[in-house]
Structure formats: C-alpha cells, structure tokens
Specification:
Elements lengths: L1 H26 L11 H24 L3 H29 L15 E6 L5 E7 L6 E5 L10 H9 L3 E5 L18 H13 L9 E6 L1 H12 L3 E7 L6 H7 L3 H21 L8 H7 L4 E6 L3 H11 L5 E6 L7 H4 L1 H16 L1
Parallel strand pairs: 3-4, 3-5, 5-6, 6-7, 7-8
Antiparallel strand pairs: 1-2, 2-4
C-alpha cells in the first residue's frame, strides 16, 4: 500500500508543478520572445522543462531503483504534459506579449481613435471609399493593423473604404488583450459604428475582412450586427473548445484534445471578463450575410474547420489557395486572392 500511496503523492506533486509551471511560462519568458523565436515555441520548450522537473520529482518519490523510475517517467510524461498545456495556453491567451506596431500607415490613410465598450479605445487607419462601400479589416492574434497593409492596398485600389483596426490591447488600442478573440464581437461593432460615420460610406454596403483571429471575430460580429452585409474570413478555425470539437478527429487523441480545450476555456473565463462567444458554425448560420472562407492549402485544420462551418449553409463559400500558409493566401497567389475577394465583395456589396 505504501508504494501505491507514494506513487499517488508523486503524481499529485508532478501535476501541481506542471500546472503552475504551465501558467508561469506563459507569463514570464514567453512574453519576451522576439524575432524568429515565437511565443509558442518558447512556451513549448519551457513547458517541456517544467514537465521534466515534475517527472524527476515523481520518479524520485516512487522508487530508488533506476528502471522503475524510468518506467514511471515514460508512463507519466503524457499525463503531465496534458496537465501543463491548458493553463499555459489560457494564460498566454489572456496575457499575451504586447504587439508593437512596426509598420507605417498606408499613403493617404487617416489616423482614427475609436471609443469602444468597457473603456477601451481602438486605434485605426482609414483609407476613404470611392465607390460607397467599405470594409473593416481585422488582423490575427499577436499582431497589429500594420500586418494587413498589403490586403488593405488591394481593397483600397478597388475603391473600397478600408478601416484597419488594432484589436483591443494590441498596437495603439487600449484595454485588455485577448488572443482567442473573445472581445471580437464588441470591437468589430465599434469599428462598424466608426465606419458608418465616415463621409461617402453607404451604411448598407459594409463588410468585414478578417485574418486568422480577425476572421473568427468577423464571423462572430456578423451574427451580432445586422449592418454587416458580407464577411470574408481567412484562416478561421476556432475561438473556443466548442469550435474545435466540431472538426477535431475522433479517437483517443481527439477525446483528450477536447478535454484539454474545455479546461483551457474554463480557465480563460476565470481570468477575463471577456464573454465566451458562440461557435463559428452557429454564427455563420445566424447571419444573413454571405460568407467567404479562404483556406490555406497547407493547413489541414483550416480545411476541416471550413467544412464544418459551411456544412448545410448555402450562404458560405469556401476557396482553397494551394501552397498558401496560414493567412498567406495573398502572398502565395496574389491574382487568385484579389480576384476571389473583389468578385465576392462586388456581388455582395454592389
């Protein structure tokens, strides 16, 4: 009985260490990642170190025999890693490293400061409309409006007004950042308010173009705001565990991932006042706005997510750009991306 109790105590200690370290690594060194080393890669490396420490503690408490220690480490490694991952991702999402703006404004863009909910102010650049239609352009997680400059130029050259917005807590926007996009419905609604106030913009000809997290926010905002008449979402996959549950593969691996995502979401709810959004599929079904999903040909998860979001919904079109990386459709095939997006906006916004 004593060895069993010792092992159980060791496992509990290992889990506790892994859980705490998962949160600490997301708050500490991961926030300092720069250059070619991403936040997630640093977090993953430190998570592995935390798990190793936890397993060493577990193995030491289990037995003095080296081969028993080795068996314990091999058997417990997946359990400890699974324990560390949800708090690491939750803390990383709620307290992300600050996204600095490193791009210059496009020529002719006006600088705007948009008041939003809960005291937040959104920084934005606005390129004026020459055809009466306009779009809100939203960037991905850990990024800023400057990352969408090439997309804005394509849209502006075609006559569309373009409001390039920093997400809450990113770039020059104030408020608490949230890299799962849970503030998206509120932020985009504030951006649409600002867009409708611009001269020359017809209020019934407004769309949203979003990349990655921005695409997910675009889908959610369309559900919440009837003024949105068209949605283009590139690289949209998930904001909550319920999204991923819709397209994750089955089997033991899928079951474990679903449980990890559920724990992550619960932790996020405890750490932020941001409201947990509904699923992307429900958002697509609940809006009358036509939707274009752009999928990277090299990212299998995007294809699975797009298939799930669009299933049974005639308003949703899916276009895959071969050879494109995540949100890299414009870079991979500028002609196809431009033609697809502009044709869609022409058909939906007139």
């Amino acid at each position: 009985m004593k060895p069993i109790l010792t092992m159980a105590g060791g496992i509990a200690v290992a889990w506790a260490i892994a859980f705490v370290f998962g949160a600490v690594i997301a708050l500490g060194p991961a926030r300092l990642a720069r250059g070619d080393i991403s936040v997630l890669s640093v977090a993953a490396g430190l998570a592995a170190l935390a798990c190793a420490c936890a397993l060493a503690c577990l193995a030491y408490r289990t037995s003095q025999r080296w081969w028993i220690r080795a068996i314990v480490i091999v058997a417990a490694l997946p359990l400890v890693a699974i324990t560390a991952f949800p708090p690491a991702v939750a803390v990383w999402a709620v307290y992300p490293s600050y996204a600095h703006e490193t791009h210059a404004a496009p020529p002719g863009a006006a600088e705007l400061s948009i008041p939003c909910t809960r005291g937040a102010t959104l920084g934005a650049w606005y390129l004026p409309s020459t055809n009466g239609a306009a779009v809100v352009l939203t960037h991905g997680a850990g990024s800023t409006r400057g990352a969408t400059r090439a997309h804005a130029e394509v849209l502006s050259d075609a006559g569309y007004g373009v409001l390039m917005v920093d997400a809450r807590g990113h770039g020059s926007s104030t408020g608490q950042a949230m890299d799962l996009g849970w503030w998206g419905d509120e932020d985009v609604r504030c951006a649409v308010d600002a867009l409708t106030a611009q001269p020359g913009v017809e209020p019934d000809r407004i769309g949203i173009v979003g990349l990655s997290m921005g695409g997910e926010q675009a889908l959610g905002a369309a559900r919440a705001d009837a003024r949105v008449r068209a949605v283009i979402a590139e690289g949209a996959t998930q904001r909550t565990a319920a999204d991923k549950a819709g397209w994750l593969p089955g089997g033991p691996g899928g079951w474990i991932q679903r449980r990890m995502d559920s724990v992550r979401d619960q932790l996020v709810e405890w750490m932020t006042p941001a409201p947990r959004p509904g699923t992307l599929r429900d958002a697509a079904l609940s809006t009358d706005a036509p939707i274009l999903l752009i999928v990277a040909g090299t990212v299998a998860d995007e294809s699975r997510a797009a298939e799930w979001i669009s299933a049974g919904n005639a308003r949703v079109q899916v276009v895959t750009i071969a050879g494109a990386s995540h949100t890299g459709g414009l870079q991979a095939d500028r002609e196809l991306w431009s033609e697809t997006v502009l044709d869609f906006l022409h058909d939906t916004l007139g």
